[in-house]
Amino acid sequence: GRGFAWLDTGTHDSLLAAGQFVQVLEHRQGVRIACLEEIALRMGYIDADACFALGAKLAKSGYGEYVMEVARSAGATG
């Protein structure tokens, strides 16, 4: 994987800080945190075309667009 971070969310302030951390990371790095379709693809549980099909079901959202782009970069023909 790409790494991990432990984020304490025991208070309102720390929960807000964790959310902001995820937002900044996703925007600056151009990746999604815990994208299950991407994880399944990278681990070999699904192929690129199956990943693309899953993303296509969500094509009207930024998440679906991300999943389809990940699939395309892995060789999806969709």
Structure description:
By secondary structure, the protein is an all-alpha fold. The chain folds into 2 domains: 1-34; 35-78, no CATH class. Helices cover 59% and strands 0% of the residues. It is built from 4 helices and no strands. It has helices at 12-29, 36-42, 48-56, 62-73. Helix 3 runs antiparallel to helix 4 (62-73). It is elongated, with a radius of gyration of 14 Å. The model has no long low-confidence stretch (mean pLDDT 95).
Provide a brief overview of the structure:
The chain has 78 residues and is mainly alpha-helical. It contains 4 helices and no strands.
**How many whole angstroms does the radius of gyration measure?**
14 Å
Tell me the major beta sheet.
none
Counting DSSP E segments of at least 2 residues, the number of strands comes to 0
What's the order of the H and E elements? HHHH
Poorly predicted regions: none
Percent of residues in helices comes to: 55-70%
Regarding quaternary structure, how should these chains be classified?
Answer: single chain
The overall number of domains is: 2
Morphology call: elongated
Please state roughly what percent of the residues sit in beta strands, choosing from under 5%, 5-15%, 15-25%, 25-35%, 35-45% or over 45%: under 5%
